[in-house]
Structure formats: structure tokens, C-alpha cells
Amino acid sequence: MIIVKQPEFENDDYLFRIDTTKLPKAEEALPFLRKIDPILGEYYWSKRQAFLTKNTDPNIFSRFVKDKPSLRNLSDLDMLDSTIYTVACERENNFSYQDILINVKKHLFQKPTTRRCVLRFIDSYNKYYVSETERSLDVTCLSLIHYLAEGPKLIFRASDIKNELLVDILTINEFFIAPIYNIKLKNYQTSIYSSTSQGTSDWDNFVKLLHSSYNIGKIT
Q: Has residue 92 been placed in a domain?
């Protein structure tokens, strides 16, 4: 992990790079997270399953509300069309999730010098604006993924370091990064930037957990 800029205060930005190929696969990540915190493990698995099945029902996360500030408005939502990124990417790009993966790989490896392979998740400004007064709107924290031949860049609007960041990295890697790069590249780095961060006092613990996740094969 290379930390270019760590957050110094609440809502500060951050930038770091990780060797994404060292991240655990789902079947390894689940027992690792459960060992740290059973609730964290179950939350990760629920989110992963929602990505996998494109389940936008808010009730799948209802048992985590008291532990996850990002879910504070869950009872007001009819669907999680922005939180579930496999759904958000389809809505914002007019492609099915599987077609997006196929086209990104084709684009990226036919034109390896391209800087134009960008996948958008971000909502329209109008939706963000209205969500300030209407709690019934689900808005995404991930803005975009910029795919480059040597590795991707993740850009977040907001990032809850304490409650969400590790789960976000694991799920985004599984569904949007590994399927693109693992076949072609043995080693690649992912840059992760957030323009605001929350739970910044937990930064050191996040870094420790991320490093630990690289070695979970050694955990018994």
C-alpha cells in the first residue's frame, strides 16, 4: 500500500494505491472479516450477494442500520438503485453489467494507450440536490472508475473509512476490477481517491486491516 495523502480531519480527501492482486477472494474474505467482527463479515456478505443478484431491496440491510451511518435513511428508501453498483452502472450507462465488462475489456486491450475508458456510477446533480431535502433518494458514493492499461483508478464522492471502505474495496474489486485485469495482468495497482472522507479517526485501523487481508492465507 502506497499512501500518497491520508486524511487529516473529517471530510478531508485521501489518495492511496494498493496491489489489487493481493486482495482476498470472497471465500477467503468472509472468514477473515467474521474473525475481526461478525457483523462486518455478515454485512460484507450481504452486500456481495446484493451485487451478485442485483437485489435493490433495502430490507436486506435492515439489521445493520444501527452500525452503519450510511444506512441511516434506509427506512425511507424504496430501492437501493445507487448503493448496489451492479445496478447503478447499468442505469447510468445504458448497458447491462455483463456487457459493460465485455466492452471495457475490449476497449482497454484493443487501445491500451486510451484515457477514455471511464465507467460512470455518479447520479445527476439534480438527484443529489433533491436528496438533501428528500430522504427517499438513494445516491451513490462511488463516482467513477477510470480504466487504464496498467490498472484502474477509483474516485469516490464520499467514503466512510470506518464502516464501509474495506467492504467497498473488496466488492468493487470482485465485480469491476478483477474481471477486467486478472486475465491479462499478473500484477497491477489500483489508485483510490475520495474527495471527502468520514470516520477518518479510523484510518490507521483501516490500513492495518487492509495489510492483514493480504496475508489471510496464513491465518488459521
A: yes
What's the pLDDT tens digit per position in 183-204? 666 678 999 999 999 999 999 9
The phi-psi region of residue 199 (left if phi > 0; otherwise alpha if psi is between -120 and 50; otherwise beta) is left
Residue 125: exposure state from Cβ atoms within 10 A (0-12, 13-18, ≥19)? exposed
Give domain status of residue 220, yes or no.
Answer: no
- List the beta bridge partners of residue 192: 16, 154
What lies within 8 Å, CB to CB, of 40 at 6+ separation is 33, 34, 167
Give Cβ neighbours of residue 22 (< 8 Å, ≥ 6 apart).
Answer: 214
pLDDT tens digits, one per residue of 25-38: 999 999 999 999 99
By C-alpha distance, which of 117, 107, 109 is closest to 152? 117
Q: Please tell me the total count of domains within the chain.
A: 1
The CATH number of the domain holding residue 59 is 3.30.572
Range of the domain at 88: 2-215
